[in-house]
Amino acid sequence: MKYTRSFQRCIQIIRRIVQLKTWLIGMAIITLFAGCGPNIITTNNVPLRLAYQSKSPQARATNQEIILLKPTLRYSDNIAKEYANQFKKQIMLKIQAILNNRGYKTSILDVSDKDDLSFAQKKESYLGLELSGEVVLRPDPKTTEQKKSSPGLIFSTGMDVTKGVLLSMGYIKVVFIEPSSGEAIDSFMIDLSELDIKQPFIRSSRSEHTGGLLGSLYKGKDDSNDAVKTSLNKIFAEVMERIDTKVTRERIRSYARDIADLKAQHKY
């Protein structure tokens, strides 16, 4: 009888040891995978290349100078500040190149308000150019799909996925002004929603919950930033092509009488 009781106690001890080991192994697995969410790869394969080459022939040089005021552009929040700054810088450099190609002297100013032009700038400049607008990139609400991760102990991915197409919205407005009076001579607008910008993207992000024990085995992709850069490259080229088409020497020469009248009214 004593032997039987001792044997039973040994069996109970062994069972407790096995249970303890099982519990420890389980805790080790939970510790290993806890907080290890899905592996999301953010791509960076597309350079921001804001390029445009005018096909217009070089015109004969004139003595007339056109001043380019600092552009006032706003951007959607998915466009990084560095991209916005480059877009603003390059669009003025390309407009300057187009006007130089038309035979005009140009200066890019660090002034965005025509009222802040200096006495010399108002007196000596033949024409001024203002540029303003909004550059907006938004997912197409008709085609964008969003899949959120469902909570779960084991198989939850812990990853939210948005898949869709970026569309361009907003506008670019160009205004020619007579510097001494500040009066607008002519203007035109480019509607960015009319451009053929339809850039696919996929954006994976970690969900509010950590995901299941196997969450770290799932892989996701985020190419939304590359999609933004690709869209900006396309927008820039198409906008510059339209500006190049509209800002002709003939168009600027047609302002001559209005410019002369305004300058005569504001002699310094």
Write the layout of secondary structure elements.
Elements: H1 2-33, E1 39-42, E2 65-68, E3 72-75, H2 81-101, E4 105-108, H3 119-124, E5 127-139, E6 145-147, E7 159-178, E8 183-191, E9 198-206, E10 219-222, H4 224-246, H5 249-253, H6 256-265
Parallel strand pairs: 1-10, 2-4, 2-5, 3-5
Antiparallel strand pairs: 5-7, 6-7, 7-8, 7-9
Helix pairs in contact: 2-4
What CATH architecture would you give?
2-Layer Sandwich
Q: Give the CATH superfamily.
A: Putative neuraminyllactose-binding hemagglutinin homolog like domain
Q: Total number of β-strand segments? A: 10
**Inertia-based shape:** elongated
User: What percent of residues adopt helix (DSSP H or I)?
Assistant: 25-40%
Query: How many individual domains?
Result: 1
Low-pLDDT residue intervals, each spanning 5 or more residues = 152-156
- Beginning-to-end CA distance, first to last residue: 124 Å
Under CATH at level 1, the class stands as Alpha Beta
Number of helices: 6
| CATH topology call | Double Stranded RNA Binding Domain
Radius of gyration, taken over Cα atoms and rounded to an integer in Å: 32 Å
Supply the helix-strand structural class. Answer: alpha/beta
Beta strand %? 25-35%
SSE arrangement, N to C: HEEEHEHEEEEEEHHH
Mean of the pLDDT scores?
85
Major pleated sheet: 8 strands, mixed
Overview of this structure, please?
With 268 residues, the protein is of the alpha/beta class. It has a single domain (59-265), classed as Putative neuraminyllactose-binding hemagglutinin homolog like domain (Double Stranded RNA Binding Domain). It is built from six helices and ten strands. The strands form two sheets. Strands 2, 3, 4, 5, 6, 7, 8 and 9 form an eight-stranded mixed sheet that branches. It has a two-stranded parallel sheet with strand order 1-10. It is elongated. Mean pLDDT is 85; it is low at 152-156. The chain crosses the membrane at residues 20-41. Keywords: Cell outer membrane, Lipoprotein, Membrane, Transmembrane, Transmembrane helix. It is a lipid-anchor. It comes from Helicobacter suis HS5.
